[in-house]
Design the sequence.
């Protein structure tokens, strides 16, 4: 009896280890279509999130090839392309941005890792300045509580950088009703409002602000995914988070939550491959 239990446990452990090895080194393409009568021309966007300086193949050739095949009109970045560890390498993240910026318009929203580098410069000497100057050399200006407008499509892309207090572990800090309007201004409801907001937990607040579409990351799909239960653990250390990946709706707003391309601490994914997301924005209802 005991031997049978041990053998079964060994098989389970092997399956989990095999899944971790496989899913931590691959990504899958996920497609979404969003329609709105505010949109005046079709627009295809690729969403990248939570790369954490990973490289899929030498110099991210696999990821770049997949994006080239999609032929997007632009790239949305939902943050955490690098990892905030003192002295950590960010060359893969910066190299990817450099290569993408040569062919596509990049709409870069900040994640908590990019934000942390700038907030605590003594803990991460030179990293924020080095990464940001590298982005700007390629023509990428991160959307730090700012908006870029695509007039041909009537799409306004806004990048929200919310305070570190809204990334606390274990509990969700309430977001004041006037916080986002003060941070981002009042959105023009005649334009399709696309909000890049790294932390999906505040989707209700983003919807109240006036976002037609929110794109987020941060949760890494819950690190490990289980049937029915979904993602297991969020970065806030909450079990089975409500928002772990996929599409969600709140009144007239939609959120597309990327499960990210990689992870950190632990740098592992189980039954949870990385995601390269394609969003087709089209006129109509």
Sequence:
């Amino acid at each position: 009896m005991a031997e049978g239990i041990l053998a079964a446990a060994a098989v389970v452990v092997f399956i989990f280890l095999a899944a971790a090895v496989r899913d931590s080194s691959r990504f899958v393409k996920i497609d979404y279509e969003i329609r709105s009568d505010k949109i005046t021309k079709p627009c295809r966007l690729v969403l990248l999130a939570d790369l954490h300086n990973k490289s899929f193949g030498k110099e991210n050739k696999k990821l770049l090839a997949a994006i080239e095949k999609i032929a997007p009109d632009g790239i949305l970045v939902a943050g955490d392309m690098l990892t905030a560890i003192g002295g950590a390498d960010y060359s893969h993240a910066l190299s990817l941005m450099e290569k993408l910026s040569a062919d596509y318009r990049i709409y870069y929203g900040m994640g908590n890792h990019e934000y942390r580098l700038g907030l605590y410069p003594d803990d991460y000497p030179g990293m924020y300045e080095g990464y940001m100057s590298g982005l700007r050399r390629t023509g990428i200006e991160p959307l730090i509580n700012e908006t870029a407008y695509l007039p041909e499509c009537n799409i306004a892309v806004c990048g929200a950088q919310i305070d570190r207090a809204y990334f606390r572990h274990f509990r969700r800090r309430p977001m004041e009703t006037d916080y986002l309007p003060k941070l981002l201004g009042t959105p023009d409801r005649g334009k399709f409002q696309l909000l890049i907001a790294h932390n999906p937990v505040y989707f209700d607040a983003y919807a109240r602000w006036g976002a037609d579409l929110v794109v987020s990351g941060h949760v890494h799909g819950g690190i490990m995914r289980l049937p029915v239960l979904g993602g297991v653990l969020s970065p806030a250390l909450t079990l089975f988070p409500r928002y772990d990946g996929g599409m969600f709706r709140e009144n007239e707003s939609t959120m597309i939550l990327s499960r990210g391309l990689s992870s950190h601490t632990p740098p592992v994914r189980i039954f949870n491959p990385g995601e390269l997301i394609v969003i087709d924005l089209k006129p109509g209802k």
